[in-house]
Amino acid sequence: TVAAAAPFLVLFVAWMGGLIARAWQADPRRARRRRQRALRAAIDAVRVAPDTARRCGALLDWQRLAAQSLALDLAVPTAAQLRQLDDPRWAAVWADSERALYREDHTLAPGWCDGALALLQARGDHAAAAPTPMARPARARFLRRAAATAMLLLGLAALPAQAAEWSDVRGDASSTASAPSDPTDWIARYNLALAAAAAGRSGHALGETVAAFAQAPRQPAVRAAFAERVATQPGSDATLAALAHGAQPASWLAAWQWQMALLTGLAIVAAGGGFGLVRRPRAALAVAAIGLLVAGSAGVALRQYGALVDPRAAVVAQDVALRTLPTDAAPVEGAPRVAAGTLVRAEHDFLGWTAIRCADGSRGWLRRGELVEIYRASRV
Question: How far apart are CA 60 and CA 63, in angstroms?
Answer without folding.
Answer: 5
